[in-house]
Amino acid sequence: MPVPMDAFDEVRPATACLDLLTEPVAAAIRGWRGSVPVEEIRYVDTDPAIADTDALVEHHGRWLLEQSANCVVVAGKRGGEVSLAACVVLSHTRVDVNGVVRRQLGARKASFAPMDTAVGDSGMEYGGITPIGLPAGWPLLVDAAVADAPYVLIGSGGRRGKLIVPGKALAELPGVTVLAGLGVA
Fold first, then answer.
1. Does domain 5-184 sit in CATH 3.90.960.10?
2. Nearest 5°: CA angle at 26, between 148 and 34?
3. 3-state SS, residue 39
4. 20 and 161 in contact (C-beta within 8 Å)?
5. How far apart are CA 12 and CA 17, in angstroms?
6. Half-sphere exposure of 182 (CA within 13 A, CB side)
7. Where are the alpha helices (DSSP H) in 17-107?
């Protein structure tokens, strides 16, 4: 079931809202090369006070939990080396950090990256990190359920605003690996 766009006061093409996006996200939208037309990526203005999933769901309704996705930054560690990756799962699931992520990254240990690292290295705001516009060297792990979704609501790079994006578009982002079971209940 796609995100009902009429649930929001104003939904605009992300290309018309580049000034509202963080620079890495705006640059990714400007340079879009996926098979999904960039016009299918939409921007929804939301209150930064309700940027977190629980607050957004409380404000807009429970239906949103099933049609939203979260992007979290993880740190994989092996032999003193730390590598960052991003994981995208549906909001009603959690990232299998110690199983799927750790194995995929070939890490001895994996954990959520510290907030300062995630924000500083991504160029995005905490609570708004999105898979669109992440640093080129980061692996991007996307749960198969996200890739298969007609549309999901994700962060816009900042606490203000969200993006409505076809799952297929997320599956085609640079550095992506689509994994079944990345998101667990």
1. yes
2. 40
3. helix
4. yes
5. 7
6. 27
7. 23-30, 53-60, 63-66, 102-105
